[in-house]
Every structure is written in C-alpha cells, then in structure tokens.
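=== How it folds ===
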Amino acid sequence: MIAETVCSAVSAAGLGIAAVTAYRRRFLTAVRIAAYSLVPLGLVMTGVVDWLADTAFSPTAWAGFGVLGVSWLLFATTRSVERRRGGTRKERREARAAAGRPDVVPPAASAPSLGPGSRPAARPASAPRAEDDFSDIEAILKKHGI
C-alpha cells in the first residue's frame, strides 16, 4: 500500500516537472521526463510492485534465491575443475588412447598439413660478389665498432 502511494507521488512529481519544462519551450526534454515519470505508475498498475513487495518479505522466496545461488556455485566449481583437469572424462580417455598410438592426432589438435618429408636440398652457392661493392660500407661499420 505504501509502495503504491510512493510510486504514484513520484509519477505526479515527474509529470509536474515535465509540465514546467514544456512551459520553458523544451518539448523534447519534457516528453522524455514524462515518459520516465509514467514508469512507476505503470509498474503499480500492472502489479509488479505488489509482486516485488510479496517477494521481498517472503522467506520462501529468499530460500529460493539461496538455492539458485548454490546451484550457480556448483556449476561454476565443476567448470573450473573441468578446465584444470583438461576437459571431460571422455576427452581425457580419448587423449590417453591417442597417446598410445603415435600416428593419431589428439582430439583438440589439428592434423598436420604435410606428411613426413625430407629436408629441402641446399641452395647452390651463388658467385661471390666483388669485394669492392661493400668495402666502403665495411670500413664505416668497423669505424663505429659495429
């Protein structure tokens, strides 16, 4: 009962402020204030305020929130333990089985794009360049101790 009265008073005050704002020729702001001030009145008329008041003072509702919190805590704990262990039991079993066979790739890894191959042939050495090309650069670098 008190909550409905307070919400109605807040809506009336908001509509009064909107009227003063409209009188000052700031119509867009006045309409926005009126929209915000009608929200508490709408919540009272739809019954949301009664539902919130009944929920806030109900021990059964608070016990339900406690049960939901415990449930969330259990989910979060199992997820963190699962991440620490490295996946679900099925994934660990598959990884253990794959470790015994060297040709099998673990489930989370991607298959190699190239098979085993030989090393590429060494490049043939190119003809040595003339010493005159870089001799002046080498002299500058030696002068600076590089």
